[in-house]
Amino acid sequence: MAGAGELSSYASEEMHYNFSDKKKFITWRKLWIFLAKAEKALGLPITDAQIAEMESHAEDIDFAVAAEEERKLRHDVMAHVHTFAHCCPTAAPIIHLGATSCYVGDNTDLIALRDGFNILLPKLARVIDRLANFAEEYADLPTLGFTHFQPAQLTTVGKRACLWLQDLVMDVRNLERARDDLRFRGVKGTTGTQASFLQLFQGDHDKVEELDKMVTEMAGFKKAYLVTGQTYSRKVDVDCLSTLTRLGASAHKICTDICLLANLKEIEEPFEKEQIGSSAMPYKMHAERSCSLARHLIALMADPLQTASGQWLERTLDDSANRRISLPESFLTADIILSTLQNITEGLVVYPKVIERDIHHELPFMATENNIMAIVKAGGNRQECHEKIRVLSQEAAAVVKQEGGDNDLLVRIQRDPYFAPILGQLDALLDPKTFIGRAPQQVKTFLAEEVRPLLEPYKANMDVKVELVL
């Protein structure tokens, strides 16, 4: 496949086929059949026998003949017109009647974009489903929250997963919108004016409009672009690929978080039973591969932007080679990222004891305001209590930072007679669940109102498993 590179060995068979030569050239033949059927229905002298002949050879492409024709003609579309004509001698005179190369080229690209989104969306839905189950399971498990990767107020493992989910929910909506916004190029002619078809139908504008509508409907689109040049606007590619790059950004953020948490030993991605890591690092991170591919996906966004900005008047040919690379590579990359994410989210491992240890290492510093409020309720002075805790906190911090010891702030508080009135409350004051706010409730509400309803259209595809190519 042109431009697919090694991605084709990683991506799913269905996405590989979506951008394969076989599908492309079969689609070309189907488009020629749609055109002939519509032209016949509108009165052109095309016979049922010609259409039947074309339909009987829609998929039996002789690639060797096509390659030889292209070698002679130096034109891929005309090579396949001739190849189709070889096996359809009766229909040969009416194949591609009135059309230009972009009739098959651009319309096939639009079909591939639409079908590509339809392949990706159920995969994205499965990732969201797995993450939603994870978030629900750990909705009330306290964990350290971080700002600037420094310990901050507690959150829960499930609430953090909802931050990942929220980005992916946005991606579903973006992909659905981009797919649903796609229109067909339709039957527009050399510079988009439909002049050749107006000649075919002897100046009958109504028939030309009807031809466009009929072919559009046969191809499975509700609408065609009302105005085009020789090509559909390359801003359409910008719109489609931008949704994929945003998905790439989501995947990169999620997988980076997982890598950070793995470093803390709090969460790990699943490790296959027979998977082999390196000798220095006996684990291998699918998350890191996902980050690597996500960077590539994000970088591909420059291609459609430059292509769209560089089009001359009704079109220039410098878009062709670039699009044969950037369009399939974007979808192939997104495809393997989603398969990787599904594998990761189906088996995330949580280590509650490690999380608990990390919380207790930091929580005494975070609980100082709770201690102050308890002293005040017991009749103490806020400013005096604040100063005592400040001094004890600095002493405890010195033990941690300068001596490499454990956080002993709680021990210092217990030893100080000043805090005697609240010693019996310390366990309750340091209960992690009192520091997580409404995180569990937020998880429940978010999953019920925003996540689960979004997955309804994809329920039939939820049980599909993936096997990664390592």
Structure description:
With 470 residues, the protein is mainly alpha-helical. It has 20 helices and four strands. The strands form two sheets. It has a two-stranded antiparallel ribbon with strand order 1-2. It has a two-stranded antiparallel ribbon with strand order 3-4. It is elongated, with a radius of gyration of 31 Å.
Descriptive tags:
20 helices; two-stranded antiparallel ribbon; 4% strand; 470 residues; 63% helix; mainly alpha
Fraction of residues in β-strands: under 5%
Radius of gyration: 31 Å
Structure class: mainly alpha
Q: Into which percent range does the helicity of residues fall?
A: 55-70%
What is the strand tally? Answer: 4
Largest sheet: 2 strands, antiparallel
- Please mark out the parts with pLDDT under 50 across 5 or more consecutive residues, or reply none: 278-282
Q: What is the helix/strand order?
A: HHHHHHHEEHHHHEHHHEHHHHHH
Query: Mean pLDDT across all residues, rounded?
Result: 89
- The rough form would be described as elongated
Number of helical segments?
20
Distance between the termini: 21 Å
What's the arrangement of strands in the largest beta sheet?
1-2
